[in-house]
Design brief:
- This protein has about 350 residues and is an all-alpha fold.
- About 70% of the residues lie in helices and about 0% in strands.
- The chain contains 14 helices and no strands.
- It is rod-shaped, with a radius of gyration of 42 Å.
- It binds a DNA duplex (14 and 14 nucleotides) through helix 13.
Length: about 350
Amino acid sequence: MEDQARMMSGLVGLSGLSQADVGDHDAVRKQHSLGQPQQDIGDILQQIMAITDESLDEAQARKHALNCHRMKPALFSVLCEIKEKTVLSIRGIQDEDPPDPQIMRLDNMLLAEGVSGPEKGGASAAAAAAAAAAGGSPNDGSIEHSDYRAKLAQIRQIYHSELEKYEQACSEFTNHVMNLLREQSRTRPISPKEIERMVGIIHRKFSSIQMQLKQSTCEAVMILRSRFLDARRKRRNFNKQATEVLNEYFYSHLSNPYPSEEAKEELAKKCAITVSQVSNWFGNKRIRYKKNIGKFQEEANLYAVKTAVDAASVSSQASQANSPATPNSGGYPAPCYTPDGRL
DNA sequence: TTAGATGATTGCCG
DNA sequence: CGGCAATCATCTAA
């Protein structure tokens, strides 16, 4: 009966019940002041429970006494064993997961984009070079290039500072928990193995947070890339001189406006654009000219005259007869190109 | 703000 | 693979 009362009083601190609800306070006090704990486990438990009822100094003294008790290590290991067999064994199984393939994928991508790799790495330079090669005149290209690099550097900086913050928070928290558990292991059955396991759990939690960071960084990089590498979004009209050169070629080869590979290269060099841009231009030009020859008539005449004048000036023979109003009179190919008229 | 111009892309064909 | 046709996305002049 007395034992029961002791146990009940011990529970008071934990359950929040009032002393009046569980029994005679003075009787309990008397038990506490009995001095050295008895050798049976029930007494030790009782004392552990009773700690909550005592003042801090008293509690510390009692805690120390408990720690020094010769039964303590045995009891501790038994309780740890019991705990291990029940809760932790269940948890232990699901904790053993292999390295996440998702996070490896994200890591690889960030490395490839030059975000997580070494500063100013080759990867980012390569990506920027690809951006420059993707389109636009060299001038615009270099502007986009530096803009792209700046944005990428910004993303990289945010990524690294966030990562550092997470790592710091993780290690701080881990230390805190470890200290707490070590401290509590003096009064609770917490084995080093369990502490280790807890650290593992914390690390997993933080790495899942890190994965979110990596994921959002990847997204940001993808958006950046799509914005800068999709040339359609950053289309620049060719400069006047380039258009002039291309038109000259087109109208002076109206009967067969299909420049050879060499001619394309030549034109590309003259216009400071890529060969594929030349191809695009001719493809667009042919289709649009064909669709509406009338609309291009004036332009055709203009370039016919232009070419004629150029040729005439080379032969140092004035061609006064030619004027925009009287086109196709210089012996140059008339705008006779038709869809079927491809020679 | 908007219509037309224009460079790029995509899908298909021979 | 080169070219055509349709279409997209952006630029530009009015």
